[in-house]
UniProtKB/TrEMBL annotation:
InterPro entries: Poly_export, Poly_export_N. Pfam families: Poly_export (PF02563). Residues 45-141 form the Polysaccharide export protein N-terminal domain. One of its GO terms (molecular function) is polysaccharide transmembrane transporter activity. The keyword Ubl conjugation does not apply. This is Polysaccharide export protein N-terminal domain-containing protein. It comes from the Bacteria. Keywords: Signal. It comes from Zunongwangia atlantica 22II14-10F7.
Length: 263
């Protein structure tokens, strides 16, 4: 009987420390004390500023499209390319000096500017150097998708979402989601800045994550999801898996002890 009690206590202790609780697996959990509160999602008020390596889509339109055709690059050698491939060939990549090369206009510095500021800059140059107001030119400047990379306990790889704003939840879902042994409480974001790279942390199990300034990802973000201790222990993610593992270990130990005591 004492042996049975020892086995039972040992099993319960190991189960409580080895299996992964639903609290660690659930996203954006509400605080029980404020479950009726209204959650205000704080969107980033600061517009994104272009950095080295970004890819821009720039198009110029006018009443007479023929007169602006030279400003709209079309790589006829890759006419069958679609989506990201098309943007690779036709987009404007920001070089190490923060410049892009626009047909006829030449090099345009875009480093640190917003897409709206770049649009105004290009439009102003076109009106002063090539067209008159009567041409009614219309310039659009957009980021050619938000590119980001995921590694760790998440679908690893490079991804592109063709939206102006992307939340970290959308980015993770697009990458295939976080595995059962991924640490949702401390997701790391490696973000590029003009002065270098910084690592930021966000707890995706807490509803307050939507208020974080890192809830919306930026181009070239690296999202890192570390494993929980249960992965290295190999004890299973559910109580049943953990019980089977523990039962097997205890059974082997008991058998070994009985064999040694009989010698």
């Amino acid at each position: 009987m004492p042996r049975f009690l020892v086995f039972l206590v040992l099993t319960l202790v190991l189960l409580s420390t080895s299996c992964i609780s639903t609290k660690k697996l659930s996203y954006l959990q509400e605080d029980k004390a404020s479950i009726d509160s209204i959650v205000e999602v704080h969107r980033l008020n600061k517009p994104y500023r272009i950095q080295i390596g970004d890819l821009l889509s720039i198009r110029v339109k006018a009443l007479d499209q023929d007169i602006v055709g030279m400003f709209n690059p079309i790589d006829e050698g890759n006419a069958n390319a679609t989506g990201e491939e098309r943007m690779y060939y036709d987009g404007f990549s920001v070089d190490e000096h923060g410049n892009i090369r626009v047909p006829t206009l030449g090099e345009v510095n875009v480093m640190g500017y917003t897409v709206e500021e770049i649009r105004e800059q290009i439009e102003e140059r076109l009106l002063s150097e090539y067209f008159k107001q009567e041409a009614n030119i219309f310039v659009t400047v957009k980021l050619a998708g938000i590119r980001y990379t995921t590694i760790g306990e998440i679908g690893a790889g490079s991804n592109v979402l063709y939206k102006e704003r992307v939340t970290i939840m959308e980015a993770i879902a697009n990458a295939g989601g976080i595995s059962d042994v991924g640490n949702r409480e401390d997701v790391k974001i490696l973000r590029q800045y003009p002065h270098g790279e910084e690592v930021h942390h966000i707890d995706l199990t807490n509803l307050d994550a939507v208020k974080s300034e890192y809830y919306y990802i930026q181009p070239n973000d690296l999202i890192i999801v570390d494993p929980l201790p249960q992965k290295s222990l190999g004890s299973g993610t559910t109580g049943l898996e953990s019980f089977r593992t523990i039962a097997t270990v205890v059974s082997l130990l008991s058998t070994s002890i009985l064999l040694f005591t009989r010698l």
